[in-house]
Amino acid sequence: MRVIFLFATIFVAAVLATGHQTHPSMQGMQSLSISYDTPEQFSLLKNYVDDPGFDFVRSTNDLVDVLVTADKIEEFKQLLEEHRMNYTVMIEDVHQLVTEQYIEQQVERRLQARSQDYASGRLSFTYYPNYTEVNEYLTYLTQTYKNIASLITIGNSYEKRSMKVLKLSTGGANKPAIFIDAGIHAREWIAPATALYMVDLMLQNHRDLLTKVDWYVLPVLNPDGYEYTHSSSANRLWRKTRSNTGSTCRGVDGNRNYDMQWMTIGASSDPCSDTYAGPKPFSEVENQHLRDFILTRKGQIKAYLTFHSYGQYILYPWGWTSNVPANEPELVSKLLMNIIASAIMHFVTNNIFTLLSLLFQRNLAIQCAQAIAKSRRTRYTYGTSYNALYPNSGPSDDWAMDKAGIKLSFTYELPGGNYGDLLPASEIKPVGIETFEALKVTHQYVTSKYASH
Ligand SMILES: [Zn+2]
């Protein structure tokens, strides 16, 4: 399996270097999930990496998910069958699904538009909000929870959309903070929706999470790309920013653009690639704003969480090396001590199963994965980005840990079910509820380690 993993590593690096001049037509496009278990099968798949008809959206050490255009699909399936490779058609017709989802979105939006909640800016979380609706919701929160919620404008995007961080705080000085961002990859719609729904849950029913910790939430880190995917069904699969870097192809992969081992592995120098790292580290103004915001609060922010989709992973640094972070042993042992201490503290209120699970959990990622699993039996894989998923350089979580000194730095790859990034809006609430369990665990850990008691 290790050999296969190494192949996978090379494969993903190759995938990342793929360049498409334009996004291929979705008409007749299918989404396949393909299992492989021999190096021969793997290298066969690898042959298609540079083919503009193929978009490898996910790759692990035993499967790949790939979008294939109509003109290539039959021939490709035949080849898979000839080489005895199992595949499942996840989406029969990508174009049809995207079109249907757009209509559903519009219908639901209009339905909600009649409600008083909509007029106030409140989100129903029954459809994916666009950039304007996200901002209206943030304003609604500041008006509804005047003493807790406030907005910090951290700057404008490339196309001059304002970027707003929601601050949740019950006041008081020297509180530790948890920072959350989402939507650096435009097409991963479940990420901003989940971040916002968790805020909704917190403000409605879990304000105890605000007593000892301040929260900063940047729901849309790539507003231009996000709005682009909302503007037309043809743009639904756009991933990058929308900056013009002087090439015929627009945009940069924001999550390869941080000044942390920039362009060393798993990133592309091709402006047409979906993982183009940009002309230089922090070329993207959106990332500059995030950097400046976090560095201004260096020392206060104790946990950095960035939400993506898909694949059900809780990842921590590093992406550029198979080495684990220097603080992992410290994290594991001290965390356990803290968990035990807090478990005893909460003995009366926690049931025995919670206590036992707390006692036996090895580290925060494991604990968060188990909290999620308990909520809806969703299984998460955890580990370093390099070891658990694939190598990459210049992602925000590596930067947050190394350059901003935030020792608890995690990337969440939220569930995609059978739909990948096209997860139906009906999943927003279930995903939000289960992911909130991980947020509670993170909060508990940050409180027990950093808050004054
Ligand atoms: Zn992503």
UniProtKB/TrEMBL annotation:
Co-factor requirement: Zn(2+)
GO biological process, one term: proteolysis
Gene Ontology MF, one: metallocarboxypeptidase activity
Record-linked Pfam families: Peptidase_M14, Propep_M14
One Gene Ontology term, aspect cellular component: extracellular space
Protein family according to the UniProt entry: Belongs to the peptidase M14 family.
Entries under InterPro entries matching the protein: CARBOXYPEPT_ZN_1, M14A-like_propep, M14A_act_pep, Peptidase_M14
PANTHER family named among the record's database cross-references: FI02848P-RELATED (PTHR11705:SF140), PROTEASE FAMILY M14 CARBOXYPEPTIDASE A,B (PTHR11705)
Domain Peptidase M14: 127-446
Function summary: Involved in the digestion of the blood meal.
Record flagged with keyword Zinc: yes
Protein name: Peptidase M14 domain-containing protein
Organism: Frieseomelitta varia
Chief place where the protein resides: secreted
Gene3D superfamilies: Metallocarboxypeptidase-like (3.30.70.340), Zn peptidases (3.40.630.10)
Localization of this protein: Secreted
Top-level lineage group: Eukaryota
Keyword terms: Carboxypeptidase, Disulfide bond, Hydrolase, Metal-binding, Metalloprotease, Protease, Secreted, Signal, Zinc
Active-site residues (renumbered): E413 (proton donor/acceptor)
Transmembrane intervals: none
Signal peptide per UniProt: 1-17
This protein's record includes keyword Zinc: yes
